[in-house]
Amino acid sequence: MNLPLMLLLRPACNEVVMGILSDGTSLTQRGLKVLEERLPPRWRAAWKKLARAKNDVWYDGMLRITAPDRRSASIAVEAKSRIEPRDALRIAGLAVRLENTPLLVLSPFLSEATRDRLREASLNWIDLTGNVRLVLPDPGLFIETEGASKQPAGGERPARSLKGVSAGTIVRALLAVSPPVGVRELAQTAGTDAGYVSRVLELLNDAALVERGPRGRVDRVDRARLLRRWAADAPLEKRGEQAMFLEPRGLSVLVERLKSTGTLRYAVTGSLTAQRWAPVAPPRLAQVYVDAAPPDAAARLELRPTESGANVQLIRPRDDAVFRESKVGDDGLTYASLVQVAADLLTSPGRGPAEGEELLRWMAEREEPWRG
């Protein structure tokens, strides 16, 4: 029987397998129940005793999956109370040592980022909230269901994120520097506390968004993934006070008015900026950061308040870095940095996310025009 590789486990018995959860059951008992509820009719799953795999690779348990025609497959299981994206990379790297034995990751909760990394490595998983992926070619079985997208209340640790001005400053600094870079150097670049930088780097390291050396230096930054994570944690709708308006004569009129304003500090983001580098389609919505309350800025730009049909979004940002990092283009318009534009588009309405991904592809191929 030729079974696919699915996942890997660590040496020695995992105490989590025999550990008791808050409801008095073990992690393996709960995991088996989650799987049984999702198996097709007449399929069965059962735990076997702990065993040591070949090549001195230990796993935490063995699942036996049996089809209605009595064909079956055995699956090694890695059970842990906490699995981060970084762990998924390690597991994927070790899975090959188990050769033809498939494996399964089992945990109380697996974040979307962790599941993405497991999927990229063709690994399977179960968490107790109902996030399940199990693929077996023989007997043929495919299960994929969604559970919770966030750490359930009462989890082992509070959720951590990149929301907030200070975290955004660190993200911008990481995207601008050339690794390797130390914590103090990064703190100086970001203009923030080294202790806070260290805590953010711990989060990013767990999420496999950066790689750190033995002395804690950042040796590599996954820029595209870091931008996506920042956008998800600090979406455009949370970036500050904002409102929608209408320029009835079109966006070209707004552009000329912005160029001629002498008293309004602004930075154009979204499609109007992205089209200069990675055009997808003519912009339908102008998104502009302004340093005044949106109604006041709209009045100065002669825009009309509207509840439908808006073509202008004005945003008063919480983070002044939006203006500090903006640049005047050769057309005389002031544009937000491409890092900011990409993050904004990824959580914008309509086709914004698709434009954001196209801009990320452009940025990955040409770092010189936008970094530094």
Q: In words, what does this structure look like?
A:
The chain has 372 residues and is α+β, with helices and mostly antiparallel strands. The chain has three domains: 131 residues, Trna Endonuclease, Chain: A, domain 1, CATH 3.40.1350; 69 residues, Orthogonal Bundle (Arc Repressor Mutant, subunit A), CATH 1.10.10; 130 residues, Beta Polymerase, domain 2 (2-Layer Sandwich). 34% of the residues lie in helices and 20% in strands. It is built from 14 helices and 16 strands. The strands form four sheets. Strands 1-2-3-4-5-6-7 form a seven-stranded mixed sheet, sandwiched between helices. The protein has a five-stranded mixed sheet with strand order 11-12-14-10-13. A hairpin with a 5-residue loop joins strand 15 and strand 16. Helix 3 runs parallel beside helix 4 and helix 5 runs antiparallel to helix 8. The N terminus is likely disordered.
